[in-house]
Design goal:
Layout: H1 5-32, H2 71-85, H3 87-91, H4 106-109, H5 111-114, H6 125-128, E1 131-133, E2 138-140, H7 142-151, H8 164-176, H9 203-213, H10 215-218, E3 225-226, E4 233-235, H11 253-261, H12 277-287, H13 322-327, H14 331-336
Antiparallel strand pairs: 1-2, 3-4
This protein binds heme C (HEC) (2 copies).
Length: 338
């Protein structure tokens, strides 16, 4: 069926033009809808496309601007960054300054020393603290917030507020927030809030995700891999004695899911996620169903009605069980408080 190229030319051009018009149309509709993500929480496919959530994300100030700091300020900012990145070398079980934490580094969860967009960065800390937090029922300053992570995420003890180390961490956080307007959380700060699934998160499905996509680094027993100097982790633990305790932010399944969606497996960024939303929720349920250190949380959430939907410990001001608060489905709980 060889056709005459001259004769088929107009047909071909018309076809190509129609295709072009169709494409422009689709693009226009897309833009009109504000480029909302097409990724439904119940689909297993991952669509990667420009999404207004992921453009113009905030970034850290460039290092060269440190020349405007005093020598002492610059020293503190750099030492602060070093402490965030290599916490355990200084403050872990074999720490050179003190032994007050579990071997993890702040950077294990606050990626790239707290500068990674949607990687649990510190961009909104200087601009939003001191602030009221319902977990403590008090106005908290940055010292309290940093020590929360020492006591919960690093399952350790608070760092003395007057120590050089605390002053350095605060100086670094202030540096990262240099250009952020007071009261504003810049785009891409903290952890991405993933859309909830209609069903409950499933630890059994999550175990399959874990074996396929996490276990090679975080290990079968979830204990991670120590670095050769034995001071910190090449692959940090996800559960067990050396992991974060039940009072930590990551113990809430929504935080865990939002964190891993755009940051794990290692090297993943928001620009090219490797987990579907479902996989992120289910693997979060699996990891947070495994044993880990406990913590006395009796003075948390003095107003029980302020507990987040996925806070896994009662009593609650609503009729739902601890099980449903932990794993979902969350919709009914969220609606109860509307
Ligand atoms: C196991 C993971 C993990 C580790 C390790 C960790 N953090 Fe965190 N951190 C979190 C999570 C999760 C949140 C957010 C919690 C939330 O939003 O409920 C958080 C929040 C914070 C915040 C508040 C951020 C904001 O925008 O309000 C600060 C400050 C902070 N961490 C400092 C530290 C410091 C300093 C260290 C090291 C000493 C550290 N964290 C170690 C998980 C961790
Ligand atoms: C290629 C190795 C690798 C794989 C695969 C991987 N991770 Fe990680 N993960 C890391 C490393 C390394 C860090 C610490 C990052 C840093 O310090 O910069 C980390 C950190 C974490 C953290 C925060 C720190 C902690 O220990 O609590 C969580 C949570 C996590 N990973 C979950 C997962 C999940 C879930 C998967 C599977 C979907 C996964 N990771 C796959 C290497 C990996």
């Amino acid at each position: 069926m060889s056709s005459n190229p001259i004769k088929s030319f107009p047909v071909l051009t018309t076809f190509l033009y129609s295709l072009l018009i169709l494409l422009v149309g689709v693009l226009a509709i897309d833009l009109y809808q504000g480029n909302v993500s097409k990724e439904s929480a119940d689909s297993t496919q991952v669509y990667v496309q420009p999404d207004s959530n992921f453009t113009h994300l905030w970034t850290a100030p460039s290092d060269w601007r440190m020349m405007y700091l005093t020598e002492n300020q610059k020293y503190l900012v750099l030492y602060g960054r070093e402490l965030i990145a290599h916490t355990s070398d200084y403050l872990g079980p074999k720490g050179s300054v003190k032994t007050i934490s579990n071997g993890m580094n702040c950077q294990n969860c606050h990626l790239n020393a707290g500068t990674q967009p949607w990687g649990n960065n510190y961009f909104a800390v200087e601009s939003t603290y001191p602030k009221f937090r319902a977990r403590s029922g008090k106005i908290e300053n940055q010292i309290k917030r940093v020590n929360d992570c020492f006591e919960r995420s690093l399952n350790g003890q608070a760092l003395d507020s007057t120590s050089k180390e605390m002053q350095a961490i605060l100086a670094y956080i202030r540096w990262l927030g240099s250009d952020v307007t007071k009261g504003v959380s810049p785009k891409g700060s903290g952890i991405f809030k993933l859309k909830s699934m209609k069903r409950a998160c499933d630890p059994v499905k999550g175990a399959e995700v874990y074996v396929a996509k996490c276990q090679s680094c975080h290990q079968t027993d979830g204990g991670g891999v120590l670095a050769s100097n034995g001071k910190s982790y090449t692959y940090p633990p996800l559960w067990g004695n050396h992991s974060y305790n039940v009072g930590a932010g990551l113990y809430r399944i929504s935080n865990f899911a939002g964190y891993v969606k755009y940051n794990m497996p290692q090297g993943t960024t928001y620009a090219k996620p490797q987990l579907s939303d479902e996989e992120a929720w289910d693997v979060a349920a699996y990891v947070n169903s495994m044993p880990r250190p406990t913590k006395d949380l009796s003075s948390d959430w003095p107003k029980i009605a302020k507990k987040p939907f996925d806070h896994p410990f009662g009593p609650y001001a609503d009729p739902y069980s601890e099980e449903q608060h932990k794993y979902g489905p969350y919709k009914a709980i969220k609606e109860f408080y509307k």
